[in-house]
Amino acid sequence: MQDIHWGMIGAGDVTEVKSGPAFQKVKGSKLIAVMRRDEEKVKDYAERHHIVKWYTNAQELIDDPEVNAIYIATPPDSHEDYALRALKAGKMVYVEKPMTLSSIHAHHMVKAVKYYEGKLTVAHYRREQPYFKKIKALLNENAIGIPRLVSLQYWRRPLTKEALSKPKTQWRLDPAISGGGLFHDIAPHQIDLMYYLFGNVARVNGISFNQAQLYPADDVVTGQILFQNDVLFNGSWLFNASENNDRCEIIGSEGKITFSVFSNDPIELINSEGKQLLSFEKLAHVQEPMIQAVVEYFQGKRSNPCSAAEGMEVMKVLDAFTQTV
Question: Which of the following CATH numbers is that of domain 130-281: 3.90.1300.10, 3.40.220.10, 3.30.360.10, 3.40.50.2300?
Fold first, then answer.
C-alpha cells in the first residue's frame, strides 16, 4: 500500500520528542502537515521539524488531498470532533490518550469508525514497547504461574505554584477540557496495560475526590477491577503525597513480577528459579514502536494495535473509578 502521509492536529510539548519525530523515522511514514491555531508557533514547529505544510485551521488540514492519515494531539475535549471529521473525510486516525472525555464520547467514535468503515487507533503506545511486551511474554510463559492479584501505586508530590501557573498544566486540571485531572492524564496508560495484559473486565468500582483542594479536579483515586479471568486489580493514585511512587506488582501462584509504568526501572521477576532483573534502554521517542505498528495497520499489513473499541473499554474503567458517568 501507499506510504502514510500524516497531518498532525496540535503541536504542543507532547509531540516535540515523544511522537512527532517518530513519524519521520518509521518506514513508510512521513509527517507532511501540521496544524495549530497560533500561526507563529505552528510556523516555528514546521520549520524546526522540517514539515512542508502548516495550517491554522484543522478542517483545511483534514481536507488536504496529500494527507491520508490524521494524528490528533490536542486536549481531549476536541478528540471526538476531529476524529469524526477525519473519518468522514476518509482519513485514517491516530488519536492521543485519553481517547476522549468519557466512555459516552468514546462510543460515538466507535460508531463513527463502523459507519464510515474507517480505521482508528488509540495512542496507548506502551503496548508496543519492548519493556511491556516482555511482561506480557512472561505471563504467557507462566513465569509466575497463574496471575492472581495486581497492586498498582502511583503517587506524586503536589504541584508547585509555578507548575500550577503554566497553561500546559492548567488545561490538564480542568475536567471540561481533560475529562478529569492528573489521573486522566496518567491512568489511561496504566489501565490500558492491565486490559492488554489480562483481557476483558467483569466488574469495576472506585472512589475519587478532591482531597487537597489545590485545583478543580479530583487528586486522589482508588479503584478495583475484576477481570473475566479472575485476576483482581487494586490501584491507587495520589497527587498530593509526601513522596513519588511508581510501582506495580503482579502476584501469581508461583511468583511475582514487579515493574514501573513510567520510570523504566528494571523488571523484577521472582519465581522458583530465583530473582532476575530485566533492564531495557530508554527509547528516544516513546511512541515510535506504536507508530510503526499503526503505519503497518493502516497499510493493511497487521491488525489494529489498539482499536477504538478497546479505547472505549479503558474509558469505561476511568468513568467507573471517578463516577464520571
Answer: 3.30.360.10
Q: Rounded to an integer, what distance in angstroms lies between the CA atom of residue 9 and that of residue 139?
A: 37
**According to the CATH classification, is domain 4-126+289-307 in 3.30.70.240?**
no
Q: Which three cell numbers stand for residue 134?
A: 516482555
C-alpha distances in Å from residue 293, one per residue of 94, 270, 309: 11, 31, 17
Nearest alpha carbon to residue 150 among 268, 235, 207, 266: 235
Beta strands in 123-244 (DSSP E): 147-155, 201-209, 220-227, 232-238
Phi, psi of 155 (to 5 degrees): -125, 145
What is the C-alpha to C-alpha distance for residues 97 and 196, in angstroms, rounded to an integer?
Answer: 15
**Nine-digit cell at 313?**
473499554
pLDDT tens for 39-77 read 999 999 999 999 999 999 999 999 999 999 999 999 999
| CA dist., res. 58 & res. 303, Å (int) | 28
Map residue 37 onto helix, strand or coil.
coil
DSSP characters for 233-298? Answer: EEEEEESS-SS-EEEEEEEETTEEEEE-SSS-PPEEEEETTEEEEE--PPPSSTTHHHHHHHHHHH
Q: Rounded to whole angstroms, how far apart are CA atoms 30 and 209?
A: 43
Element (H, E) at 130: helix 130-140
Report domain extents, the chain. 4-126+289-307, 130-281
Give the tens place of pLDDT for each residue, 95-132. 999 999 999 999 999 999 999 999 999 999 999 999 99
Side-chain-side CA neighbours of 205 within 13 Å: the count stands at: 1
